[in-house]
Structure formats: C-alpha cells, structure tokens
Amino acid sequence: MRLTHLMMASLAIGFTTSLQAADFTFKYAHSQTDEAPRSESMRYFKEALEERSDGRIAVELYFNGTLGKEEDVLQQVQMGLIQGYRGGLFAQANPAYLIYTMPFLFTTPEQAIDVMEGELGQAINEGARESQLHIPVTGVAGGMRQLTNNVRAVNQVDDLRGLKIRTPPLAPTLRAFEALGASPQQVPYTETYMALRTGVVDGQENPPSNIADMKFHEAQEYMSLLNWQIHPDPFFISAQWYDQLPEELQSIVDDVAQETMTRSNEIWLASEANYLDTLGEHMSINDIADEHRQGFVDAVVPVWEHFVERGDFSQEQLEQILALTDQAEVLE
C-alpha cells in the first residue's frame, strides 16, 4: 500500500512538473487552413522548439483565422499579446518588403529566396524592429503568382484589358493590374470564391497552392502562368517577447525559425507541380511565350519607379535584384 501511495505521489509530482515546465509560451496564429503548407511547417516549429528548449518554451498553434483577422493578429504580435504570426500585411512591418512584390521582378521563386537569405534580405528583416517585430527569417508565401479568369486565356498584355480581377489590397498589385489594363477589385479573401461564382469578378491571382486550397478552380475556366509576382513570408515574432528570453533561448528560436522556413519553402515549391496537375483537371492552362513576357515587363516598369520615388526601397536595392535576375538592361 505504501509503495502504491509513493508511486501515485511520484506520478502526481511528475505531472505537476510537466504542467509547470514551460517558462515561456509562444502563441502563434495565421489565417490559412490546417492543410496549408504554412500550417505543416508550423507543426514542425512547435515540435522542434519545444524539444530543443527542453520544454522551457510551450508553443500553441491557431490556424484558420481563429484568433481574428490578419490585421488584428499582427497588431497583437506588435503589442506582445500574441507571440508569432505569418501572413500578409508585411508592408506594415517594413515598407521595404514591398520590393519582393514588384511585378515581373523575379522569374523564379528561387531567385527571390536567394535575395531573402542574403544581405539585402537580412537588412529588410532588421528594419522591422522599428515596428516592434523581430523577424529572424523570410521565405516565400507559395510559388509564383498566377492568373485565373472566366473570359479568355491571357497570352499577352492586351488580353488583360478590361478584366475585373480580384486582388489583395496591396499597393504594388493594384498598380500593376492598372498598368496592365485590368480593373483590380477589392473582395475579402474568404469571399472570393462566391465572387467568382456569381461573376462579381472575372478572375483572381494567387499561387497554385492557394488556388487549390480555396477551390477557386471550381469557378474558373482559364489559368495563365504569368509568373508575375511572389509574396514574402516573414516570420513575425513579438520583439517584446523575444527580448525577454535568455540568450540561449533566443538562439534556439532563431535557429528553429530558420529551419521552419526552409521546410516551408521546400513544401510549398515541391507541391506546385502537384497543384498544377490538380488545377489542370478543371481549367485550361497556358504558358506565356518568352517574346510576350517583355511586353508585361515594359508595362510595369513605371510601377517599380513609383515605389522607389515613394521611398519604400531604393534604386540601388532594385538594381541589385535586377542584376541577380539578369534583367539589368530593363532600366537602361
């Protein structure tokens, strides 16, 4: 009997200790579904950080927008009420993130990743400190963004003229579609499917993973592989929370965040071919001929120049990227 009591007491102590083991809590949220590549990578983050920190940091994951709209979540991260977030609104962290979204600036996601992992990318991450955010790493939010619509296949710039395209409320995107002759429309992301179904908009633009995840292909006839833009995926961490961590835990958080983003990039990009196969079963998919791509680039150069003049990033930074993507002659 005594042994039984001792064993029960020992178990109780162990259970209490496990409950109290975490010195810090990392509450994370984003708006994508449980099945999204971003969610898959964050499950790795939770497992790795809790193990690597010996349980000193407990990670709570909230997907599907359960903690609110992206703007509300980002605000809570800046205030230290939530500790982590990945998603849109990156320009609120640092306007320089907009350089990644310049239309037709990159031709492949790998080009963007190289810049994000280099000196220019790190400087942009560090600039977010002024917004009360610690950003240890930035990746890509899916592959290159493509266009779908119900009117016609888009093969050259003139094919876009007059099309009503749902876009996110991102200034470079709005200016790009205006420059290309389309009519950008503001529809909440979660309402886009019905807007496509009912003809409120003719089309939308997203990477294949998002198009498949949100089932936009069920309401669209044409998909044109413009490879026109890519979005950055900064890992937003509350600077207030991060700064209170001991140095050894800060290093662990940064290391695990780096590994998580590497996995996220790999998952997203490796899945693109599969997503395209799925989408091809529902839509007619066309590529853009090389001789037509230059017409798109020429049409959007004024968009690049606008954001340089506005001061979001510098001409030097833009030229650095153009040199890396073998497009230095575009501004000559």
UniProtKB/TrEMBL annotation:
Keywords: Signal, Transport. It comes from the Bacteria. One of its GO terms (cellular component) is outer membrane-bounded periplasmic space. Residues 1-21 form the signal peptide. GO terms for biological process: transmembrane transport. Gene3D superfamilies: Bacterial extracellular solute-binding protein, family 7 (3.40.190.170). InterPro entries: DctP_fam, TRAP_DctP, TRAP_DctP_sf. Pfam families: DctP (PF03480). It is found in: Cell envelope. Belongs to the bacterial solute-binding protein 7 family. This is TRAP transporter substrate-binding protein DctP. It comes from Vreelandella sulfidaeris.
